[in-house]
Design a protein that fits this description.
- This protein is mainly alpha-helical.
- 82% of the residues lie in helices and 0% in strands.
- α6 (106-118) runs parallel beside α8 (142-158).
- The protein is globular, with a radius of gyration of 17 Å.
- The two termini are 26 Å apart.
């Protein structure tokens, strides 16, 4: 429902699913529904509420002992911290995610690049943007390639490599 222009109804369904999963004791389902609620709230610019939900989902993920689940929730919470302009916390969370899962997805690598850029770790930001682009090239989701290119353009602009930044921005638009 969220992607079809009914975010309020989507949130209602996510809450219903969460209640059912909590009653059934479905821990991974609970984590998934909390995560979905957080995504929905983020799309409505309710960043603080989303961050609180991602924090709850991370706490539950840690209880499962699943490294993949913990890494994913760290990545989502790190992204939420970027939304709330807490770049230092975002860096810490995203770096922890990458330590747990050294093969991050393109979104995690791009978000880590953005976090590094926000704390003026420009060389690290470029490395993460390059990594995001390499990962995105193998994905069927072309929007990841556009995002990675745009993130790298931001970093290159900060590094005053204007021609390269413009080229990546144009490539992003082309994608």
């Amino acid at each position: 429902r969220q992607r079809h222009g009914h975010p309020d109804r989507a949130l209602e369904y996510y809450r219903q699913a969460l209640a059912i999963q909590e009653e059934a004791g479905d821990r991974q389902g609970v984590i998934q529904s909390i995560d979905a609620l957080a995504v929905g709230l983020s799309t409505q610019y309710e960043f603080e509420q989303a961050e609180a939900l991602y924090t709850r989902a991370l706490e539950l993920a840690r209880q499962t002992g699943s490294p993949q689940l913990v890494a994913r929730q760290l990545s989502h919470l790190g992204s939420a911290c970027l939304d709330t302009r807490d770049a230092r916390r975002a860096v810490a969370l995203l770096e922890e995610s990458v330590r747990i899962d050294p093969e991050p997805n393109a979104e995690t690598a791009a978000n880590l690049s953005a976090a590094y850029l926000a704390v003026a770790r420009n060389d690290d930001a470029l490395k993460s943007a390059d990594r995001a682009l390499e990962i995105a090239k193998t994905s069927a989701r072309v929007e990841l390639r556009a995002t990675a290119l745009l993130q790298r353009a931001r970093v290159l602009e900060r590094l005053e490599r204007h021609a390269e930044a413009l080229a990546d921005a144009e490539r992003s638009l082309g994608v």
